[in-house]
């Protein structure tokens, strides 16, 4: 018999048909739940547990149609739920195989019961990402498109979702294939000079190859450099808020979040640990980290908090340093200024609603040449200027997402970097008048690295690692 525990860990006996099954909707209560099956025996499995209201034979149902009916218990024919079943017939489906999607009422028990019936009727439990893996292995999408799918699912902002969708649509694949084609043309010219030495075209081929390789290097470098923008869209801007105690760090965090997330108190050292939150800044995730006030303290817990803050400053993409603009600079303030001297940072002069002693005129602040903004965290005054400054510093308004014009995946970045290095090696071989077949070896190495992006030349371990990041049912 088939059994399942409350954590959906299934112990299956059977699974002797070529069909996989999984729950494709998030676990929990909801309006609908979907159980998906794929494989050449999908409809044979479905026939055992689905009774169409029209009594129509499953094999006679056309693809791209939906049928109303009942899921029944495989052993005793007892009705479990009324459902709508979507039919997709090979090769015009997500996996290029026969697929059905059973749309039931939502709820953990109902969808679990339906999945159990699929497994009892002969389907096997799908692994995480196995449906998309089938789409890749069957040639419907390449590996970079598959990675675009998981990035789209995990998107936190509109901009990230748009970039992921462009990758899913094949924007990056198209760019990579164009570069590969250009490299192949150079290899063809080189091999022609090897095969027909009597025509004395080697010198001409070398000159042409060097020019072509320069263009290819430029394209690869542009893609590699685009990762900085892609990383921001995918991972966000890691932004650390620092300042001495009572400068207004927690008030600033609350003002940006528009909620009382951090405790605000006149007592120094209230914030002892970090508080992390993500906000959406014009389509880009801003990862805000409030830290303990920078000061010397005998309190062991507060000391740990300050040490954490100092470490986070080193790792930050952006530092927002905040100062109490009602008091002259103190030693703790000067320590903060020292910390941001060589960092990408914005200086906020806070509490202008109370008093303005014009700290921006001090030598210590002026000498850093950092953007300075006056704010009142309490009254939310000056926040728009802060947002505009962040947009300008990271050129966020200039981001144009189209046709795979930047990369968001570290795997792709490393492969593009290695391909570029191989191209540079090929150019050096030309300059050093090395045998022409040595140049071809470097170019073939570049081709191999680019082929790993699209999955034409990739190890099973890499494929396994990529699809392990997917959820069940996708």
Count the E strands: 15
Strand content: 15-25%
Distance between the termini: 27 Å
Question: Rg from C-alpha positions?
Answer: 30 Å
Determine the fraction of residues in helical runs and give it as a percent range.
40-55%
Q: If helices are DSSP runs of H or I spanning 4 or more residues, what is the number of helices?
A: 16
The biggest sheet amounts to: 7 strands, mixed
Secondary structure class reads alpha/beta
The coarse silhouette is flat
Strand order of the largest sheet: 5-6-7-8-4-3-9
Could you explain how this protein is built, in words?
With 474 residues, the chain is of the alpha/beta class. Helices cover 44% and strands 17% of the residues. The protein is built from 16 helices and 15 strands. The chain has helices at 42-49, 108-120, 130-137, 143-153, 158-168, 171-195, 202-225, 227-235, 249-257, 300-315, 331-340, 363-366, 383-393, 410-431, 436-454, 460-467; strands spanning 3-4, 10-11, 20-23, 32-38, 50-52, 65-72, 79-88, 99-105, 124-125, 237-242, 275-281, 284-290, 318-324, 345-350, 372-374. Strands 5-6-7-8-4-3-9 form a 7-stranded mixed sheet, with helices on one face. A hairpin with a 5-residue loop joins strand 1 (3-4) and strand 2 (10-11). Helix 4 runs antiparallel to helix 5, helix 6 (171-195) runs antiparallel to helix 15 and helix 7 runs antiparallel to helix 14 (410-431). The longest helix is centred in the middle third of the chain and has 25 residues, at 171-195. The protein is flat. The protein starts with a strand and ends in a 7-residue tail after the last helix. Residues 1-14 and 262-273 have low confidence and may be disordered.
């Amino acid at each position: 018999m088939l059994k399942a525990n409350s954590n959906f860990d299934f112990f299956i006996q059977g699974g002797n048909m070529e069909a996989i099954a999984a729950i494709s909707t998030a676990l929990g209560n909801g309006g609908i739940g979907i159980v998906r099956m794929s494989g050449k025996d999908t409809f044979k499995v479905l026939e055992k547990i689905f009774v169409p209201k029209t009594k129509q034979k499953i094999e006679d149902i056309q693809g791209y149609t939906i049928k109303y009916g009942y899921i029944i218990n495989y052993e005793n024919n007892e009705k479990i739920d009324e459902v709508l079943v979507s039919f997709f017939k090979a090769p015009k489906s997500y996996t290029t195989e026969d697929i059905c999607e059973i749309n039931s009422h939502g709820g953990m028990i109902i969808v679990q019961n339906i999945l159990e019936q699929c497994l009892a009727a002969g389907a096997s439990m799908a692994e995480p990402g196995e449906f998309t893996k089938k789409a890749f292995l069957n040639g419907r999408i390449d590996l970079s498109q598959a990675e675009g799918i998981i990035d789209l699912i995990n998107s936190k902002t509109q901009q990230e979702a748009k970039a992921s969708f462009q990758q899913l649509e094949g924007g990056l694949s198209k760019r990579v294939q164009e570069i590969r084609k250009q490299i192949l043309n150079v290899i063809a010219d080189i091999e022609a000079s090897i095969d027909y030495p009597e025509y004395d075209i080697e010198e001409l081929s070398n000159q042409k190859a060097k020019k072509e390789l320069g263009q290819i290097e430029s394209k690869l470098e542009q893609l590699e450099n685009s990762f900085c923008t892609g990383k921001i869209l995918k991972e966000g801007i890691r932004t650390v808020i620092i300042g001495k105690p009572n400068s207004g760090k927690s008030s600033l965090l609350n003002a940006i979040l528009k909620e009382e997330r951090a405790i605000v108190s006149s007592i120094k050292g209230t914030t002892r640990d970090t508080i992390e939150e993500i906000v959406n800044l014009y389509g880009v995730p801003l990862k805000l980290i409030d830290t303990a006030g920078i000061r010397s303290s005998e309190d062991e817990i507060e000391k740990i908090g300050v040490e954490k803050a100092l470490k986070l400053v080193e790792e930050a993409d952006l530092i927002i340093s905040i100062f109490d603009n009602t008091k002259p600079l103190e030693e703790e303030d000067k320590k903060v200024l020292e910390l941001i001297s060589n960092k990408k940072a914005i200086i906020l002069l806070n509490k202008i609603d109370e008093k303005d002693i014009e700290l921006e005129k001090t030598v210590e602040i002026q000498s850093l040449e950092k953007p300075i903004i006056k704010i009142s965290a309490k009254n939310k005054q000056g926040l728009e200027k802060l947002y505009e400054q962040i947009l300008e510093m990271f050129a966020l308004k200039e981001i144009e997402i189209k046709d795979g014009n930047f990369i968001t995946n570290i795997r792709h970045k490393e492969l593009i970097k290695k391909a570029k290095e191989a191209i540079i090696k090929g150019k050096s071989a030309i300059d050093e008048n090395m045998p022409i077949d040595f140049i071809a070896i470097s170019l073939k190495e570049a081709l191999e690295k680019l082929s790993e992006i699209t999955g034409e030349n990739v190890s099973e371990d890499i494929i396994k690692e990529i699809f392990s990041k997917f959820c069940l049912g996708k």
